[in-house]
Amino acid sequence: MTAPALRWAGVAKRFDGVVALDGVSLDVPAGQFVALVGPSGSGKSTLLRTANRLVEPESGRIELDGADVAVEPAPLLRRRIGYVFQEIGLFPHLSVAENIVLPARVAGRSAPDVAELLALVDLPAEVAPRRPDALSGGQRQRVGVARALSTGARLMLMDEPFGALDPVTRDALATAVRALHDRLGLTTVMVTHDMAEALLLADRVVVLAKGRIVADAAPATLLAGEAGAEAAALVAVPRAQAERLAAMARA
Ligand SMILES: Nc1ncnc2c1ncn2[C@@H]1O[C@H](COP(=O)(O)OP(=O)(O)OP(=O)(O)O)[C@@H](O)[C@H]1O
């Protein structure tokens, strides 16, 4: 059996005595798209950030492709892990192209093909010389995804990547990210507050509460109400909204 792409084993973390992660164990097989959901403060971002060592756990172990992530220098590790987050962190004084090649340049590697990366995220080559502030929010997020892919990373960590976007742009970009995941054979772990998005995009939805995993199931299982009370409560919201909209359409 091959090692899971990503494994958290008994990972715990406190901040000033506040428990953020309370012994989380989770195996993510290569190729899977996992959504991490749960209430605010449940530990989603902290869990994600222990994988690329933006947060160091106080106990437990995280493995990438079977190797402990704590062994390798963090900058080397991060070249193998794409990271996309809401604020995106593009450098405003650099062009789109310069932003995209930056991780490879910092790593001392040959520059990636910017046109090819832009095409992957459905952006026209014309945006390459522009500064980020000359793009829409959705376009900037696409540049963030292109940058995350620029070092050839096979693992994508996404923290509310579509959080700041309008619903139409959000839906389009989410669909594009899922298609990219499938096309490139990536492994993706995405934090989202949006249960409907999690159910529609992911192969598997992991629900956190108070630093623990309280549900871990396929979307259909969650929708069937077979993944426990916490998960059922989260699913109830998009379900009720869908039912109200359907009722309005019938009226
Ligand atoms: N750098 C930090 N310093 C102090 N406390 C932190 C820090 N990062 C997270 N925490 C605390 O750890 C807990 C988990 O936070 P985390 O950001 O992982 O939750 P989350 O589920 O991602 O929340 P949200 O959905 O609001 O983003 C919270 O109580 C939070 O206040």
TrEMBL record:
SMART domains, sorted: AAA
SUPFAM superfamilies per UniProt: P-loop containing nucleoside triphosphate hydrolases
Keywords: ATP-binding, Nucleotide-binding, Transport
Gene3D superfamilies xrefs: P-loop containing nucleotide triphosphate hydrolases (3.40.50.300)
UniProt GO molecular function: ATP binding; ATP hydrolysis activity
InterPro entries given in the database record: AAA+_ATPase, ABC_SmlMolc_Importer, ABC_transporter-like_ATP-bd, ABC_transporter-like_CS, P-loop_NTPase
Pfam family, one: ABC_tran
Segments forming domain ABC transporter: 6-235
Signal peptide stretch: none
This protein's name: Osmoprotectant transport system ATP-binding protein
